[in-house]
């Protein structure tokens, strides 16, 4: 299995034994996942097909451009970006020829581990500060070809860390290390602080999650402008997180750039 082995070993000037130690598979609770709208883990859940469709659209564009890192962004909080990032990662991991590494860069409000119902020994921000090895952060949930780098606790004022050379080297190594792996990065909201702006130019492409009725039209326009101004980051499209009444059949609508 691939599972992000050795990812970013030199990013914090440390070596990691991720290539030599056996993977520690973390069991997942299906009921917990579905309570938190994580449905792509279970292929029998009808809504999982929505993320498979999004996966196909996203991977088609990424493959055509040799992109391997994908940011998931939103204008404001509570837009559903983390839920989408987890579901899309799981959907990609179901493909036999692909693997998915999900990175939680929303340091102020990390939630990936909470949504999965699990924990890691250490946090990603500790690794980037050189305080632990990658093995202490990297977890392999109960799904082949899916791995996670998360944070156990919030970090104050993380823009400096996200914009540091350590983070830049870390992302570059993640991108180059495995041609079959897609690295999905859950970023902070674009409007609330400059955290996402510090790291977004170092990521190949992005999709934006907009919650229906939550973000104002001006906030959406401002967020689109921010992403498009990052000349090195291509916006693949926008995902509309629909109203609760519509979620029963199809919780997301996707509009590709130029569509």
UniProtKB/TrEMBL annotation:
GO molecular function, one term: protein tyrosine kinase activity
Low complexity composition bias: residue spans: 8-20
Region (Disordered): 1-22
SUPFAM superfamilies, per the entry: P-loop containing nucleoside triphosphate hydrolases
Coiled coil: none
InterPro entries: Bact_polysacc_biosynth/exp, P-loop_NTPase, Wzc-like_C
Keyword Kinase: yes
Protein name in UniProt: Protein tyrosine kinase
Species name: Mangrovimicrobium sediminis
